[in-house]
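hey all, quick one before standup. I had two proteins in the batch that finished overnight and I want to keep them in one place so we stop losing track of which output belongs to which input. First protein below, input sequence then structure tokens straight from the run.
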Amino acid sequence: MQIGLIGLGKMGGNMRERLRNAGHSVIGYDTNPGVSDVADLADLVQKLEAPRAVWVMVPAGAATQSAVDDLKELLSPGDIVVDGGNSRWTDDEKHADELGEHGIGFVDAGVSGGVWGLKNGYALMVGGEQEHVDRLEPVFDALKPEGPYGYVHAGKVGAGHFAKMVHNGIEYAMMQAYAEGWELLEKVDSVDNVREVFRSWQEGTVIRSWLLDLAVNALDEDQHLDKLRGCAADSGEGRWTVEAAIDNAVPLPAITASLFARFASRQEDSPQMKMIAALRNQFGGHAVESARR
């Protein structure tokens, strides 16, 4: 299948490579000419055969809106746009309406996999009309992990990003639990090998997970996380999860507390946030701040 891909950063660039490895034709555009296959969006659209499919993989908000604004003028009726960034689900409904006025389909895709997606595949949560999703099935199959799981048509437009938002909220709470446990183990005098305690949990325990494996990786690189400053940013999806919970009267005490803990990390050097920062760097390549001397 042929597809255009806008945004060739850490995830977009790896997605292009994974799709090409699966035999798909990918024409990529990025503002960085060093990685772009074409000069501009008009050139990208011109090189695609109708009916076209264009995957947008840029930051949520203004960048995504700009791409949608440009594509609705460049594409033709029957084409499809996929938003694979971390857009808010309410923006999806707006973008679907804007593109729909031009006869252009819209699919939202929540994508999880970070810097490991090229090797392991990406978990995909997709929202949109069945006919649009069906047309893109070969692309989803190529991006997802091997095996029967890792891809779901979650529902109508907005469902994919809503599902990814909740996924990220759960991720916040899981990382916070590991971080709190790590700090307590580091604090007591009786435990003198915290890293190996974490490693012992990787097999045979109910809390084993990929996040735990990444925590051990981080501790192997920096046993006491002395090189990190205890500060962790939030991508915005944790906030949206809490806001959605309030709107729907659903109690989310663990997720809400984990979000607030990140806010607290920006006020002081928090030991727990060293682990959160290390985990975010391990699975997503997110930037970390060096410890202040």
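OK second protein, same deal, sequence then tokens:
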Amino acid sequence: MKTLVRQTLAVSVLSTMVMGSAFAAPSETPPAFIKKVADHLIARLKADHAKLQNNPALVKSIVRQNLDPYIDSQAFTRIVMGTYATNQYSTAAQRAKFEHNFRETLIENYGSAFAKYSNQTYTMRPYKDTGSKNPVVTIDFHNNGEKIPVSFQLADKGSQWKIRNINVSGIDLGLQFRNQFAATVKRNGGNLDKAIANFKPDAEAAIDKKK
């Protein structure tokens, strides 16, 4: 009888946990989430502005603390690897290695961009809720008279939103990085391990290519 009671309690607790996670939803609206991320990042860049250009380690630390936690690196990895993200072409270990390397090089990319920060401002575009499971929020960065639109595609991760892809000035970075990775695989003769080790996503090249 006691065993049955314990089993019943265990099932009840597990059911509550599963149901709770299944119906959990971000408490913030998509634009509120993006505004929070942008505000915190810009506040930190402003606070350390004088130190940024000569301290790459500090820049990477700022990115790691204020942007990296909000990136859905698994989803971004699947987008960039494309067909190579399937079991037919890669192992779980290879995908994990790619995700780690990709995350680190993204931090390098964003760090280089933020090192040039010079007190830019931004405005948020009106947001329309279309009911999509991957809502998009767009903000315009203003830099020396130039307006740079950046759109963030989000993923509902249960307790909070995360960024799964980024579009800069109409350029889908996930797609451009996918093309870069496919080219890297080709250069390495189809050897996926070598391609993963050598892949360096280049955001500036992706954007400049479309100019």
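Flagging for whoever picks this up: The chain has eight helices and five strands. The chain has a mean pLDDT of 83.
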